[in-house]
Amino acid sequence: MSSAAPAPAPEEQPPRPVRFGIMGCASIARKLARAMLLAAPAAAVAAVGSRSEAKARLFAADNGLPAAARLHGSYEALLDDPAVDAVYLPLPTSLHVQWATAAAARGKHVLLEKPTALCASDLDAILAACEASGVQFMDSTMWMHHPRTAKMRELLPADVGDVRVINSLFSFRANEDFLQNDIRVKPDLDALGVLGDAGWYCIRAILWAVDYELPKNVIALPEPVKNQAGVLIACGATLYWADGKMATFHCSFLTNLTMDLTVIGTDGTLHVTDFIIPYEEKSGPFSVASRSNFAELHTGWVPQPSKHVVTTDLPQEALMVKEFCRLVQGIRDGGAKPEGKWPAITRKTQVVMDAVKASIDKGFESVDVVS
Amino acid sequence: MSSAAPAPAPEEQPPRPVRFGIMGCASIARKLARAMLLAAPAAAVAAVGSRSEAKARLFAADNGLPAAARLHGSYEALLDDPAVDAVYLPLPTSLHVQWATAAAARGKHVLLEKPTALCASDLDAILAACEASGVQFMDSTMWMHHPRTAKMRELLPADVGDVRVINSLFSFRANEDFLQNDIRVKPDLDALGVLGDAGWYCIRAILWAVDYELPKNVIALPEPVKNQAGVLIACGATLYWADGKMATFHCSFLTNLTMDLTVIGTDGTLHVTDFIIPYEEKSGPFSVASRSNFAELHTGWVPQPSKHVVTTDLPQEALMVKEFCRLVQGIRDGGAKPEGKWPAITRKTQVVMDAVKASIDKGFESVDVVS
Q: In the predicted model, what is the mean pLDDT of residues A216-234?
């Protein structure tokens, strides 16, 4: 008897994995499936649901999912699976409110692709369903979870000072097939087009830079580009805060891959040019110029900007899954409440996006941001 | 006799130096005086003119000017100096039209500090005077002459493709003394404030990126910052071209030193973050991302951006002086006509600046750019 190890106390047992159901086999779901495998043992892929079981089976095989993963031929069946704790939902935006609220109503925690909804009132329906069921909500904005993001956030107050001017640019050059057929250019699927897809990141980055203080108003840039169906494929806006801060962003499906965030403050300037997806998976560079002066006779800069590189063992999307799992485990196993920070950030992003869309629709008038 | 070297043929003699008169002892004139010494033997500082001979003497001593440099106690006296070929004119902007036209009328070539004039019609008076006298005109926008600028220009068509979106940011954080006393915040001296000082560079960079095609209209960003005298100390604008290109700039005396030019095209993206004054005097970095794609599963970029560094033996302001001297020597010694490229670029910059100022004055209305 003395040779038998004592049973571990309950609080010392490793938490059980969060069992994910992947709801839809979109291209982006492949990246998340890999992230869930990388995030083991916190995460496990328990099930895949698609409009046909054959599609779910193909997805499971293509993405190396465990043989035990259950394959469901409908989203309903996935939501009825009692061995699913949480859903990852990458469906077209127009389906989010229906399926995210259904998932929450069945007690599933919700990791929702961006843009989270077509408008803030749809998002509010989703958030209300999550709150009513006591489940965690998080949007799938991966770069938020890269350790670089935390490092930049840490440096901003001392090295950049009072943030005054922000610029964010996100574009990629879509090919002809994308511009004709991708869900992101279809009015019935992703009516926000490039604003919802790429603009989401710019708006989030701007809000991140000001610690999520909402702007007071936004004015869309004139002359956005729309496709024949009226869906935005290039647009931008300027955001204004009560204290004089301002931010400009531009997003496009028509120009070369660009992911810039520039934050200028009274004391410094932050530059990052791959903020959404780092150039390399395991490291993220950025630079900070702080208290930059002209050299004697204005022949150079003193000091020069500092270059930083933040490394990570796990890619940012796996870190996102892990953080989501930590919160879900706290609720499921520890009686914790859902973390309110994530839905609050989501909602602010959506509210600003709504205001930009309204400004475009109103002929580039100033639109107040109403929280 | 056979041991005597033959006299060189006239066309083989090195050109005589261009004899500069420095007209005013502004702080920036110190940088140019050094540039003229570095640009020897093409350039020589022949004279300094100031409102007092004592100031001119102090300037000559402080800046290591040759003992032979003549010291004039008035601008008139400098212009009457027959041994001055060209003037460098760093006076406050409100004095440019008077003194640049006077210099041209006396047959002096004109290297003029920016902003070149308070408005395009004043500039036109200067350019007309230069044309009437057959003298060379050039504005003192130094970065145009860095070999990095030529290298970036060379790469743009193939590596960036059709330019669609440009962003330029130039700010420096002025101290309290500057904000109270510098000529650039005084309505009677530099009425364009930060727009003329820092905005000039942004506008020039934007025009450079599109090979000097004028935008069709501009819209100033709302909520510029003005000082108590009504002079702009932070402002910005968006520029629109007929083919859908757009550019945004922001300039400020209130935030950390920032000198960004970002050019996004169909095929690539150019980033330079010290375009006006390189971090180090003898090298200029920039990066180009060309035909950037997402890596498999969107876990990185393929290819990654290329980093470039262009070195130079002489600082950009000395290269500017050398180029100006080359043109002046061609006119003075070789019967050439003045080079029309430089005044044409100056005028386009001024015309866009005028339109931005008009948009601010008209409450941020769209203002057509009239060439």
A: 97
Stretch B84-88: mean pLDDT, rounded?
98
Phi first, then psi: what are they for B24, rounded to 5°?
Answer: 110, 145
Q: How many residues does chain A have?
A: 371
Chain B positions in Cβ-Cβ contact with residue A171 (cut-off 8 Å): 165, 264
In terms of Cα–Cα distance, which of B105, B98, B146 is closest to B122?
B98
B343 touches chain A (CB under 8 A): no
Report which residue type is found at A152: M
Please indicate whether residue A114 is annotated as part of the active site.
Answer: yes
> What is the spatial distance between Cα A117 and Cα B128, in angstroms, rounded to a whole number?
60
| Smallest Cα distance from B287 to chain A, Å | 11
Alpha carbon distance B322, B188 (integer Å): 33
**Angle between helix A120-133 and helix A341-361 axes, rounded to 10 deg:** 160
Token pair in block for residue B337: 């006509």
Q: Would you say the ipTM is above 0.85?
A: yes
Contact of B56 with B73, CB cutoff 8 Å: yes
- The number of angstroms, rounded, from the C-alpha of A355 to the middle of its chain's C-alpha atoms is 19
Q: How far apart are CA B41 and CA B231, in angstroms?
A: 41
CB contact under 8 A, A298 and B28: yes
Token pair belonging to A371: 């929280």
Q: Which amino acid is at A50?
A: S
CA distance linking residue A18 with residue A329, whole number of Å: 7
Print the SS3 string covering B298-343: HCCEECCCEEEEEECCCCHHHHHHHHHHHHHHHHHHHCCCCCCHHH
A-facing residues of B in 271-290 (CB < 8 A) are: 271, 273-274, 277-281, 287, 289-290
Residue B175 makes CB contacts below 8 A (sequence gap 6+) with none
In angstroms, rounded to a whole number, what is the distance separating the alpha carbons of residues A274 and B285?
18
Nearest to A111 by CA among A368, A280, A256, A318: A318
Which residues of B are less than 8 Å from A28 in CB distance? 298
pLDDT in tens, B32-64: 999 999 999 999 999 999 999 999 999 999 999
CA proximity to A170, closest of A197, A140, A210:
A197
How far does chain B reach from its first CA to its final CA, in angstroms? Answer: 64
Candidates A223, A238, A315; nearest CB to B246: A223
> Would residue A104 be called left, alpha or beta, if left means φ above 0 and alpha means ψ between -120 and 50 degrees?
alpha
Chain A residues with CB inside 8 Å of B167's CB?
A: 167, 169, 248, 250, 260
3-state helix, strand, coil in chain B (%, to 5): 40, 25, 35
Per-residue pLDDT of A327-366, as tens digits, reads 999 999 999 999 999 999 999 999 999 999 999 999 999 9
* Side-chain half-sphere exposure of B127, counting CA atoms within 13 A: 21
In B160-311, at which residue ranges do the beta strands (DSSP E only) sit?
163-171, 217-220, 225-226, 232-240, 246-252, 258-265, 268-272, 283-290, 293-294, 301-302, 306-311
* SS3 (DSSP) at A367: strand
Place of tokens 């409102």: B51
